[in-house]
Amino acid sequence: MIVGFSGKLYKRYDGDGIDLIKEVVDEALDMAGLEYKDIDGVLSTFGRGGFLGNKSFISGSDQLSEYLGIRARYLDNIQYGGPSALTMIYRAYKAIRSGEANTVLCVQGGKISQFRDGLVTPQKTDFVDTAFDEFIKVYTQMSPISDYAMVAYRHSKLFGTTDEQRALVSVSQRYNAMSNEKAMFKTPLTVKDVLSSRIVSYPLHLLEIVYPVDGFHAFIVSKKTSKSSLRNVDILGYGEAHWSNPPPEWEDIIYTPAVESSKMASFNLNRVDVFELYDSFTITVMLQMEDIGLVEKGKVGKFVESNDLTYKGNIPLNTGGGSLNTGQPAYMSGGVILEEALLQLNGMAKGRQVKDVNTAFLNGIGWWSRRHSVTLVLGEKK
């Protein structure tokens, strides 16, 4: 039912974000063999700014429909960061099966280089993490980097996880990225290279941290499959979890909502051919490996040392290099891992194709403080 997809990423895109969206949607529709007139549902998740000058969309799906000339009877805006792309696929499937729509366009991304490079300064009053920011954020911080750095430090103190072990995640994903034409970073990495890169927020090094970029991903979900050459991929498992209270109120910050979303998906990991896990930071990947049940909590450091996580290895993980190497469009990696999963499932991952991929396990982590998780398992039902 996913009949077309596309993604475009740039360190800096000179035009308006709305023009880049159209380029991406055009490509996805071309793959699907469909036209704009076929779309009757639109789902979106957009970052701030860059759509018309530096202005943001208020209701992305509605405004996108207006711009593209889509007459939709099903609209939804899903706004909890990176994993929203995975939720869009699930809701699009549901909408089609319930008869609410026939063809649904799902778009995630944004144009944020102007904020990244300091060309535009966001107003402090226009965006908050929680309703309690004034009580929680009492010190100057580099959110979300400082937040994840604190998690990495606690994981190290509790379990002895080392900088070298975290660096192995960067090394294996860079190896995968070397065969990905969309990757921005392709120079081979060693553990020494990672540890020699500067500390950004202790203990996280520069080469453990994602680079925000301009870009969008589009996915077409439709029951009109006659013109598409893609496999009839179905949803084999799905779960989402939302921890609305801030991390200081959690049992421990070394856990993520993935412990709940993965249980809801209820899928046997021994049947998984590729894992695509949200990789905003090296520690993000490691936390998810534990929380989805791939390894026991606290033992992920030894796990990455004793297993091959490259596309050639026994546990192929983030086979395209992840957003650590493609860049993270508008601070959201969901589209990156979803596109890679679809490439693998359809035998289209040139130079890094894992053999006989029939099942892809995806997990997304969202928002600044890791409060949302979505697990999506894609493959063909047997």
Automatic annotation (TrEMBL):
CDD domains attached to this UniProt entry: SCP-x_thiolase (cd00829)
Database matches in InterPro entries: Thiolase (IPR002155), Thiolase-like (IPR016039), Thiolase_C_2 (IPR055140)
Residues of the Thiolase C-terminal domain: 239-378
Keyword vocabulary terms for this entry: Acyltransferase, Isoprene biosynthesis, Transferase
EC class of the enzyme, as a word: transferase
GO biological process: isoprenoid biosynthetic process
Pfam families per the UniProt record, alphabetical: Thiolase_C_1
EC number: 2.3.1.-
Transmembrane segments: none
MF GO annotations: acyltransferase activity, transferring groups other than amino-acyl groups
Protein name: Acetyl-CoA acetyltransferase
Species whose genome carries this gene: Sulfolobus acidocaldarius (strain ATCC 33909 / DSM 639 / JCM 8929 / NBRC 15157 / NCIMB 11770)
